[in-house]
Design brief:
CATH topology of the largest domain: UDP-N-acetylmuramoyl-L-alanine:D-glutamate ligase
Strand order of the largest sheet: 4-3-2-5-1-6-7-8
Number of helices: 15
CATH superfamily of the largest domain: Mur-like, catalytic domain
Distance between the termini: 20 Å
Strand content: 15-25%
CATH architecture of the largest domain: 3-Layer(aba) Sandwich
């Protein structure tokens, strides 16, 4: 097997994409049926929807379950560098050989019929998961929830809804209530739902959906958090849960940690071998790239003076920018941003959240993304914001410019930009 074969089929699959995004479950249901319904042979599943924190919540869950000795499959998107990052078999990235095998089988069965890339690869992931036994599957939605390709799995034992905010409005709706209804589409009859306290209009929708589906609802109240130098505690149904400080940085990770821990507490009775107390140690060992990730070495990082901090973050919406701003300001109040952004959102809204700690912005284009702002377009937009700004041709030049400034560095604006940095820095996730 060659890597070219794998690259070729991943490129080929994209040709099956319809001309416009049409969210429905018809195509994936058709493909899954032709594959022999592998989604009906999956391990007990925790399904995760929301706007921000889905991947972090999943990574915390995975680390905790692994700590307790359970075998875990997981499915996330998008990937940062290599597609294999999306599919983990027993907590290991799917091998190139196995990935190529399941993609070829799925392609043969699909017979060139119209289907989106995400639908196709989700079906292929389900095929892979069905072939190897595990105790549990962690499943992150791709877009929304109600009509997301992952929302066909029958063996769901818990649904997690992370923070909901504005994102993908052109697909999910223009109000938080409409977006929440789409996210709540993962709620199943009688299956517990775990969420974090949110705005009233969001909570109304969540509670209404749970009531209609007779689904037990567990709401974690942020106001009840207690934080010390080495531990963190919160209340769940009148029980105080105390656990270590999560390895992932930022106050927002406390929410994701509380969601993960609460979910495992709720479903612990489903597993004979699961040791809840032992699983808590997994909170200290969790790793999730491009989420306020400290970069200390690498081909690009080595160009920056060691006296300055380098942070890589995939935040790409206003809510993510707020969380990132808190992380950066807790470290220092003077930063330069290497910034790339997609045209699906307004860069000024994102940058307003970081303006108070930003001394300089270096714009760059996100390689391989047709809907990326060009470096020059971002430069012209930022010039009007009364912030010192330079532009670069690419990440290499952006780093060279940053190295001349006596400032900490944050690379942000897109997970795709984060992936490009990790690849060029030669620190590829594994």
């Amino acid at each position: 097997m060659s890597l070219k074969e794998l690259d070729d089929i991943l490129i080929k699959i994209q040709e099956y994409h319809p001309k416009y995004i049409d969210l429905n479950l018809k195509r994936i249901n058709r493909l899954l049926e032709d594959l022999g319904n592998p989604h009906q042979c999956l391990p007990p599943t925790i399904h995760i929807a929301g706007t921000n924190g889905k991947g972090s919540t999943l990574s915390i869950l995975r680390s905790m379950l692994k700590e307790s000795g359970l075998t875990v499959h997981s499915y996330t998107s998008p990937h940062l560098v290599n597609f294999n990052e999306r599919i983990r078999i027993e907590d290991q990235l799917i091998s190139n050989k196995f990935l190529l095998e399941i993609l070829n089988i799925t392609d043969k069965v699909n017979k060139n019929q119209e289907i989106t890339f995400f639908e196709f690869t989700t079906a292929a992931a389900f095929l892979a998961f069905s072939k190897i036994k595990a105790d549990i599957l962690l499943l992150e939605v791709g877009l929304g929830g109600r009509l997301d390709a992952t929302n066909v799995v029958p063996n769901v034992i818990a649904s997690i809804i992370t923070e909901i905010s504005f994102d993908h409005e052109h697909f999910l709706g223009s109000t938080l209530s409409k977006i929440s209804r789409e996210k709540c589409g993962i709620i199943k009859n009688g299956i517990p739902v775990i969420t974090i306290s949110q705005k009233n209009e969001i909570m109304r929708v969540i509670k209404e959906n749970c009531l209609n589906k007779n689904a037990p609802l567990y709401v974690i109240e942020k106001k009840n958090y207690k934080l010390s130098s080495n531990s963190f505690s919160f209340w769940l149904n009148r029980e105080n849960i105390d656990l270590p400080i999560p390895a992932l940085k930022g106050d927002h990770q406390l929410d994701n940690c509380a969601l993960s821990t609460s979910c495992l507490k709720v479903i612990s009775k489903n597993f004979n071998r699961f040791e809840f107390k032992k699983s808590l140690n997994g909170v200290k060992n969790v790793n999730w790239p491009a989420r306020s990730q400290f970069i200390k070495k690498g081909k690009l990082a080595n160009k920056i003076d060691k006296d300055y901090v380098i942070i890589l973050d995939g935040a790409h919406n206003v809510s993510g920018a707020k969380a990132l701003s808190k992380v950066l300001s807790s470290i220092d109040t003077k930063w330069q941003l290497i910034f790339g952004y997609l045209k699906t959102r307004q860069p000024t809204e994102f940058l307003n959240e970081l303006k108070s700690i930003t001394q300089k912005i270096i714009t760059t284009e996100i390689t391989g993304q047709d809907n990326s702002f060009s470096s020059n377009e971002l430069f012209e937009i930022i010039q009007k914001k009364d912030i010192s700004v330079d532009k670069s041709k690419n990440l290499y030049e952006a780093i060279e410019i940053a190295s001349q400034n006596k400032l900490n560095v944050c690379i942000c604006g897109s997970l795709y930009l984060a992936g490009e940095f990790l690849k060029n820095n030669q620190t590829i996730p594994n």
